[in-house]
Amino acid sequence: MIQSGEAGEESIRVLVVEDSRTQAELLRSTLVKHGFIPLVAENGRQALDMMEMARPDVIVSDVVMPVMDGYEFCRTIKNDDRYRHIPVILLTMLADSKDIVYALVSGADNFITKPYQPEYLISRLKKAISAKNSPDQPAAAETPFEITLSGKRFTITHDRPHIIELLLSAYEAAVFQHAEVLTSQKKLAEANEEANLYLDIITHDINNVNTGSLALTELILMRAEESEKPLPLRLLSNINQSVEIIGNVSTIRRLHERREGLSVTKLDYVIRNEIHRFQNSKITYQGTDAEVMADSLIGQVFMNLIGNSLKFAGAKAVVDIAVRDAGDSVEVTVSDNGPGIPDDMKPAVFDRFKRGKTTRSGKGLGLFIVRSLVESYSGRVWAEDVVPGKSEAGAAIHFTLKKAG
């Protein structure tokens, strides 16, 4: 059935071939607004049935449609002496270089890439109609020629002006899409900058609260009787967990934005500095004179590993940190006396947001950050048991770092 808009008798008739009712209505509305008479068909077969009665001045057809697609419809129109003079404009996503060749093979006069601006569509329509009415149109098509693309041979029957016009359309579409990409990238950068500003404010304020809470809790702990200490110790653990979460968020952000190069780093200083953050916990460490290649984020590796061990090992947690020579690398082991990591979880425990089957076996985001950092230092990380074959006896996280020099 023909659907038309209200317009003057002298208006140009445009046959719209579009299976999406929403897109068809948008096209119809745009055409009516600019003084065209739109005629709508749902697919190529229906459009062919309408041609004799509709007698459009120009055709705008989608490519992907049921029953008969846009390429086949265009090819049928251009092979019919009654209609070959009618310009056909194809609407395509232009997702592949073959789309241009298919448009050429089908005999299309032009194409418009989706998404498109209404003004661009109207300008293309006017140009196609102007070219149709131009007295300089070639009398006959030039000798067909063949091209090969992606192993397929295609026969092109277009004359050179049409080929140039289609290629220019493709170039124009590419330029337009590139401009849209640049605009999107600019908006994304601005949104990212704004999000970072909010993140800075939030983390700064939360860190201030955590710092004050830690100081007050440690003061309470100092003055508390032995029987009163479990509650402030639990509070201290919760505050440290909050500090860890904020630290992880900040680290992930810095991981994505880092521009800092690796430099010679004294491992002993880093380890002792992180141990100091957990001064109320039992952590054993013999010291090392190793120097490795790392950056300022290396401390987060130890902070996450120590924090995880203390969190999952509970009130009687004992954490041990050991460093040994491994040729051109050093191997660091952070072990604990906690519930350990089940064997089936060991390969996946460093995955993002991966958690264990129980509330006490998963290491979550912390170990994902550990792996990301260690791998960025050209090292590797893995999980083992403190006592081989007995996962319940405690976890041992090993990782390597490249030696300096």
CATH fold topology of the largest domain: Rossmann fold
How would a crystallographer describe the biggest sheet?
5 strands, parallel
Give the domain tally.
Answer: 3
Q: How are the strands ordered across the major sheet?
A: 2-1-3-4-5
Can you walk through the features of this model?
The protein is 47% helix and 20% strand. By secondary structure, the chain is an alpha/beta fold. It has three domains: 13-158, 3-Layer(aba) Sandwich (Rossmann fold); 173-257; 260-405, Heat Shock Protein 90. The protein has a five-stranded parallel beta sheet, with helices on both faces. Helix 4 links the parallel strand 4 and strand 5. The model is unreliable at 1-9 and 355-363 (pLDDT under 50).
Features:
five-stranded mixed β-sheet, 405 residues, 10 helices, Rossmann fold, Heat Shock Protein 90
Short description:
This protein has 405 residues and is an alpha/beta fold. It has helices at 21-33, 44-54, 70-78, 98-106, 118-133, 160-223, 230-257, 267-277, 298-313, 364-376, and strands spanning 13-17, 37-41, 58-62, 88-92, 110-113, 145-149, 152-156, 263-266, 282-285, 291-294, 318-326, 329-336, 381-387, 390-402. It has 3 domains: 13-158, 3-Layer(aba) Sandwich (Rossmann fold), CATH 3.40.50.2300; 173-257; 260-405, 2-Layer Sandwich (Heat Shock Protein 90).
What is the element layout, followed by pairings?
Elements: E1 13-17, H1 21-33, E2 37-41, H2 44-54, E3 58-62, H3 70-78, E4 88-92, H4 98-106, E5 110-113, H5 118-133, E6 145-149, E7 152-156, H6 160-223, H7 230-257, E8 263-266, H8 267-277, E9 282-285, E10 291-294, H9 298-313, E11 318-326, E12 329-336, H10 364-376, E13 381-387, E14 390-402
Parallel strand pairs: 1-2, 1-3, 3-4, 4-5, 9-11
Antiparallel strand pairs: 6-7, 8-10, 11-12, 12-14, 13-14
